[in-house]
Amino acid sequence: MDLTLPPKVTERAFQRIAEINASSTGQKALRVAVEGGGCSGFQYEITLDEPGDGDLVLEGQGQKVVVDEVSLPFLSNAVIDFSEELIGARFVIENPNAASSCGCGTSFSM
Questions:
Q1: Other C-beta atoms lying within 10 Å of the C-beta of residue 14
Q2: For residue 4, how many C-alpha atoms fall within 13 Å in the half-sphere facing its CB?
Q3: Domain limits of the chain?
C-alpha cells in the first residue's frame, strides 16, 4: 500500500511565487525536484518551469508548485516554504523523510 502524501506549500511560498510571476512575463510554476548528488546524497533543485505530463500540481493563490513523479516519494509530507533571513531569502524544504541534511540546506540523505 502506497502512503505517499503530497508535500504541503505554505502561504508564504505561494505569495513569493506570485511576486516572482508579477515581475516577469507569463505565469510559471515553481518546480521542486530531487536529484542524486550534493554533499549528502540527494539535492533539491528548485526552478521556474511549466507543468508537465505526470507532474503533481499543487495550487494556491492562483500559483502552482509542481513535483515530478520520480521526486514525489522523496518529498512525501514535506513542507515547501519561503524564508527571509539575514543571510538571504530562499525557498526551503522541511522534509520529514531526510535522515540528515547539510548546512547548505539543499542536500540531504535518506
A1: 21
A2: 12
A3: 8-109
**Burial of residue 96, with CB atoms counted within 10 A of its CB: 0-12 exposed, 13-18 middle, 19 or more buried:** exposed
Identify the CATH number of the domain defined by range 8-109. 2.60.300.12
Count of residues for the chain?
Answer: 110
Comparing CA positions, the residue from 45, 46, 42 lying closest to residue 16 is 46
Q: How far is CA 31 from CA 80, 86, 87, 89, in A?
A: 11, 25, 23, 17
Which pTM value belongs to this model? 0.85
Chain segment 38-54, per-residue pLDDT in tens: 666 788 899 999 999 99
Q: Which residue is listed with cell 539575514?
A: 86
